[in-house]
Amino acid sequence: MTAAQVFDDDTLPRCFRASSRRTEDSTPLPLALLVITVLMPFATGYFLSFVFRQINLVIAAPLHTEFGLSGSQLGLMTSMYFLAFALVLLPLGAALDRHGPRCVQSLLMLVAAAGAAIFARADTFHMLLIGRAVIGIGVAVALMAGLKAIVLWVQPERMALANGSLVTFGSLGAVAATVPAEFLLGIIGWRGLFDVLAVLCILSALLIYVVVPERDTTGDAPRTTTPGVSAIYSDRRFWRIAPVATSVVAASWSLQGLWAVHWLADVEGLSRPTVVRELFVMAVALSAGGLLLGVGADRLRRRGLSPSVLLSVVAGVSIAAQLAIVLRLPVPTVLPWVIVAIVGASTVLGYAAVTELFPRTSSGRATAALNVLQMAGSFVLQGATGFIVALWPEQDGHPPAIAYQVAFTLVLGLQAVAMAWFLLLGRTKPTTVLHAHAVHSRALRGMACVGTMIAYDRAAEVWFERIALAHRQARSWRTIAIGSAILAIMLSVATAAVAIGSATASVHIVSASSAVSSGLANNAVPDALRTQPILARW
């Protein structure tokens, strides 16, 4: 007699149930076949989503030249990606659970290809907005689809390694959107570049649909109700973490995604090759930051500290780095911008902190709820920065330094308010009550039977297996962190070699006193810092 014969499968916990269709089909794939047929196809989609997110850094100047776009228009166009992303994230996440990642992601990559084609053929500002929005819809669940596929196909002991590999490879799309994109831009132009991206999206859709194996997940759908998105948004503990997690990540994505290039060119007066190289360094830092922050959160959790502790530390460091940028303190120009880029990867800390507040069955909804806020926040901050900068008349062909300083200061103020909110509320203890299953109450009433005893034995066995699995996953994350650090060091060394060998490389460091006296007092860039219009030079 088994537990499944004593109690109905639908009323038993998952670890007590009889074998289902999922366990019958879950024959492990060889590692090489797993990488080729599951991991790499979805990684290509996530890679392209990062390219689309960061590509406006290198095409802003050509768009300004051809369409005469103002700062506010550039900000609105770039932020449309985040707005469309946020609007469709929740329904598309439900579609992943219902129809599977293979069908959903292959279809959405075709949508992204259509958006890239519209953008490449745009002849008005409104067509640029439409193309950018369609692209955002097409890549909205690129990461979630890959994670869903890993859950379906990868064995638990290899899941941490697979997740880390997916995140690392996808983040390299931010690197590809700097120096490589700049090289192609000089050859085929920005329209040709988006045609190439459209073709790559079509190839990615075909790769996912043809190569990825199908798996029926209807047997896995839970029949019990779990907290919905409305319950998560009404939880006070969620709103303690959400403001700080949203503000710092949205500010990082907004600054790195568009305004870093304008600050470095218009305010710091760096040449285009130098700006592109610094963007490349920032992208490398972003690609390595996610895994490093994830490992740090795991270490803190072992010591009994919540990931929200590390999130608050990262938020404080981010505020300090942005303050150094606004005041133009005498530090290497790239240093605070690298910190801002790394903070963009702190979204993993927000996810980890939020999922601790809710049952595991609703962890996906919790992360989606936070992701919607971060994407919407990026849209608002990126667009609002452009409108604020446009309030100042241009000087020498570009906005004055004080325009950027005021806009960045307002963004900085929002983060400071969110940080104060997080600290003032203090640490909130979880209040979730987990009710015991019926088998426990029956055993306490003297109704124990053979099936109940078998169920308890299986539960103890599963518990010890989960502990061993947690240790294996921790070792896998450490291995991933070491590999990511080595990759970041190699790319940084290569970047430094290119910078040293280039005759046009220059370093521009401005003291804080000159910034305050000439930038903030006179509301203009000093004569010694005035350069030719950067967009015209490009």
Structure description:
This protein has 2 domains: 30-215, MFS general substrate transporter like domains (Growth Hormone, Chain: A, Up-down Bundle); 229-538, Up-down Bundle (Growth Hormone, Chain: A), CATH 1.20.1250. The radius of gyration is 25 Å and the shape is globular. The protein is an all-alpha fold. Helices cover 75% and strands 0% of the residues. It has helices at 3-6, 21-25, 31-54, 56-67, 71-99, 101-120, 125-138, 142-153, 156-176, 179-211, 229-233, 238-267, 272-302, 307-327, 334-343, 347-355, 363-389, 401-425, 438-444, 450-501, 512-521, 534-537. It starts with a helix and ends with a helix.
Query: How far apart are the first and last residues' alpha carbons, in Å?
Result: 77 Å
Percent of residues in beta strands? under 5%
Largest sheet: none
Order of helices and strands: HHHHHHHHHHHHHHHHHHHHHH
- Can you tell me the CATH topology of the largest domain? Growth Hormone, Chain: A
The poorly predicted ranges are 1-26, 218-225, 428-453, 503-538
Mean pLDDT: 75
Structural class: mainly alpha
CATH class of the largest domain: Mainly Alpha
Radius of gyration, rounded? 25 Å
Indicate how many domains the architecture comprises. Answer: 2
